[in-house]
Each structure stands twice: as structure tokens, then as C-alpha cells.
Amino acid sequence: MADERRQGRRRLAIVLGAVSAGLMATLMAVVLVFYGAPYSPVWWAVMAVILVVAYLAPRFVLVPAVEWVMAGYAADDGKR
Questions:
Q1: Residue 80 CB: number of other CB atoms within 10 A?
Q2: What does the pLDDT read at residue 53?
Q3: Could you give the CA distance from residue 34 to residue 72 in angstroms, rounded to a whole number?
Q4: Where are the alpha helices (DSSP H) in the chain?
Q5: Domain boundaries, position 41
Q6: Which of 16, 30, 38, 71 could form an S-S bond across to 43 if both were Cys, CB 3.0 to 4.6 Å?
Q7: Cα separations (Å) of 20 from 9, 14, 37, 63?
Q8: What is the pLDDT along the chain (80 residues), one digit of tens a residue?
């Protein structure tokens, strides 16, 4: 049971991270199309860090929140 929960948590983290990073990359591409490439090469590193944070942030923020909601639904099903 614990192994299934760990695998489910890992899948959820991967999916949410991929969606978050994908959306952030899309938004960055739109900004690059409209405003052009950044003048300073440091901004490329900053954008890379933002993409990494966009991938990792859901693991610490959204995954626990989704698990909490799912645990609430599971507890409600057990009471019925």
C-alpha cells in the first residue's frame, strides 16, 4: 500500500512538474517572440533557473495539497 502511494505521488509530481515547466516554457517563448532575445547572456541562465523552479515547485506545493484533498475524499468514502 505504501509503495503504491509513493508511486502515485511520484507520478503526480512528474505530471504537475511537466505541465508547469511546459506552460512556463511556452510563456517564455511568447515573450521571446514579442520582445526578442535578452541583451545580457545572464538572462538565459535566469530563464533556465526559472524553468527548473517551475518543474520542482509543484512537488512541494501542489502535490501535498492534492494528496490532502484525496485523503479527505477517501475518509468520506470510509464513513458512508
A1: 4
A2: 93
A3: 44
A4: 2-35, 42-60, 62-79
A5: 2-79
A6: 38
A7: 16, 10, 22, 12
A8: 567 777 888 888 899 999 999 999 999 999 999 999 888 889 999 999 999 999 999 888 888 888 888 888 888 776 65
What 3-state class would DSSP assign to 75?
A: helix
Q: How would you class 58 by CB atoms within 10 Å of its CB: exposed for 0-12, middle for 13-18, buried for 19 or more?
A: buried
Could you give the number of structural domains in the chain? 1
| Dihedral angle sign, alpha carbons of residues 43, 47, 52, 58 | positive
**Tally of CB atoms within 10 A around 28:** 15
Give me 29's grid cell. Answer: 517563448
Instruction: Decide: 51 and 25 in contact? Cβ < 8 Å.
Output: yes
- DSSP label at 80? -
Question: Contact 18/55 with Cβ under 8 angstroms?
Answer: yes
